[in-house]
Amino acid sequence: MKRIYISLIWLFIFLGMHAQQTSDSLTIMTYNLYRDFLLNTQNSRIPEFAKVILACEPDIVALQEVRGINNLNKLKKATGMEGKRYNTLPFYGIGMLWHSRLGTPTITTHRMKALKDSKDKEDRAFMTAEFEDFYFINSHFSLDKNDRLQMVEAIIDFAQSVSKPVYLAGDLNATPDDLSILKLLANRFIILNHPKHHTFRSDNPQKLIDFILLYLNNAKTPTIIDRGTTDFPKEYLEGLSDHLPYWVKVK
Predict the structure, then answer these.
(1) How much is the CA Rg of the chain, to the nearest whole Å?
(2) Is the domain defined by 2-250 classed in CATH 3.60.10.10?
(3) Pair 144, 109: CB distance under 8 Å
(4) Which of 6, 64, 135, 151 has the least C-beta neighbours within 10 A?
């Protein structure tokens, strides 16, 4: 009986250690939901988006091209996650999902007007969510290179003004050699994506434009446990969006 009792004690200790190790990881995901397909509205695709998101098992998700508050609310319900959104155009914008176990973040939004000579007249924005141990930024960058640099400068200013690590995720409309990405890297951001994991277009991905980056802010560089898109069939994913989802799990 004594041996059984001791064995049970060690089992509980092991399970407790395992739970602690599991809680030390964080999975970040980004997904551009692409606004509309002909005769296939985003509203009708919400259950499928939820399946993809749940398969990636994220703790927090950056969403772009969210079409209306109802779609975000349906995603929240289907995934069991909390969420917020911000419109950059009527009924169109960016949003976030996160697991309640991360706590309730303080969310702020920074709107960026297109520059006067911009080739992309759409206003852009980035959302910041402050959690206990880190900040999370979601953005959808402009198609105009100067607008992107303006956005990057604002994000760098923010990251340098806080003391916690800052994760940045989103559709940055730029490849790794773009000036906007190089400026982030020159200011102590690091890319967590695998460079050969292309995300655009979903029917024939040849570019990496959906990023997950990290500004360490004196924290230790995290260990990347795993990263990628999903195992869903290509035909299934290209029927949902012109972007592939991307996730990174760090310890």
Answers:
(1) 19
(2) yes
(3) no
(4) 6
Contacts of 80 (CB under 8 A, 6+ apart): none
Strand order in the sheet with 246-250: 82-89, 92-98, 60-66, 26-32, 246-250, 224-228
Average pLDDT over residues 206-226: 96
Concatenated DSSP letters of 69-86: HHHHHHHHHHHT-EEEEE
Domain ranges within the chain, ordered by starting residue: 2-250
Instruction: Return the beta strands (E) in the chain as ranges.
Output: 26-32, 36-37, 40-41, 60-66, 82-89, 92-98, 106-112, 124-130, 135-140, 166-171, 189-191, 210-215, 224-228, 246-250
pTM above 0.85, yes or no: yes
Question: Quick check: 1 pLDDT over 60?
Answer: no
∠ CA 58-64-67 to the nearest 5 degrees? 115
| SS3 of residue 101 by DSSP | helix
Please give the structure tokens belonging to residue 187.
């200011």
CA angle in degrees (0–180, nearest 5) for 110-114-119: 145
CB 164: neighbour CB atoms within 10 A?
16
Identify the burial level of 3 via C-beta atoms within 10 angstroms of its C-beta, where 0-12 means exposed, 13-18 middle and 19 or more buried.
Answer: exposed
Give me the residue label for tokens 């599991």.
22
